[in-house]
Amino acid sequence: MNENVYFVWNPDTELFSIFGMPLRYYSLMWIIGLTIGYVVVMKLYKNQHIPDQVFVPLYLYCFFGILLGSRIGHCLFYEPEYYFSHPLEILLPLKKEAGGGFVFRGYTGLASHGGTLGLMIALCIYAYRNKINLWTVLDNIAIATPIVACFIRIGNFMNSEIIGKPTSSNWGVVFVQEDRIPRHPAQLYEALAYLIIFVLGLLIYYKKGTSLHRGFYFGFCLATIFIFRFFVEFWKERQVDFESAMILDMGQLLSIPFILIGIFCMFYKKVDMIWVKSKS
User: Fold this and answer.
1) How far out from the chain centre does Cα 131 lie?
2) What pTM value is reported for the model?
């Protein structure tokens, strides 16, 4: 292998620090992604003549739904033994040190499958409290979701986490914080895929608008994102030790239900009858 043909990656994960609390690139990517998603959904709401007062609280529901869902999902799916022994660390951005004290570390484990589930639960509550059809909400959020996922994966790349398997390809990346082995930049594979899915979703919406049945865009988002997530896992390193004994890793197993739900929502035109309709 030609040792000169790869990219060495070793960025500082912190942008700057305020009163000892660091702002990491990962957090910044989260904020940028959610902000772009917020603007996209705002324009969709205006296009569909949904009142502004219904839109205003949506961001907070999305933010806390994704954050809590992805955090709890990581703790339950990937490190249950540790977090059951350290329950405070599930919701607090702290890490217990050997001496018994706590240090601010931020949330060092977030699971996209848990974030998706948390978001769906939060949107159910939002739709009920604001008297708006749930499927309308899910479709609008689904159009914007891939761009949020894109920036989150860029944040993972900045953190040198969720790394790929070793590769001899010309686009291999050496994550210095991990080792000196050229690896697949799996985070960038996902970021690019989610950007493409976002563009495709927008193109479909601007061509078809709301003429497609409710639930189509929601299904399209779930099916495309998690189908790609299923296959990209073959180029990723296993995240936790117990996955080494599994044929399919945890990310792939958790993707299957979302893929099936997504396909069902895309092609079953009466899917919105599953939920009691509200005024809009």
Assistant:
1) 27
2) 0.83
